[in-house]
Amino acid sequence: IDIAKELAELEAQQKAAREAKEQAQQKAEGVAQISIDEFAKVELRVAEVKDCEPVKRAKKLLKLTLDDGRTPRTVASGIAQWYKPEDLIGHKVVLVANLKPAVLCGVESQGMILAADCAKDDVKVLFVDNMPAGAKIR
Description:
Shape: elongated
Helix content: 25-40%
């Protein structure tokens, strides 16, 4: 018996079993894991809501004008069911600043703000009012 060969095979089998278990767990949780390098590509910034209004062609969308410390930008967000425009103005939010622009109901959205699903039919925007506009979140 070649003990070194047997140990190497056993180690390879254990490694394959661990990887299979991790993949099964990821599928069960429904969340794909990303590497730290992939996460580093996401630019999160603090942005102040300067203006907000409903999008006329959509019941769920609000059009937010944000100051991210660099330039004004527009973001369309599906939070109209939970927030009135006047409740958002002046607050600071977390902005995904490097998201590709997308046109939603005629509004070019230049990013995304972060919100959490807190309960069934309850969404809360992440407010970071104690941070300066433009601060990079890491």
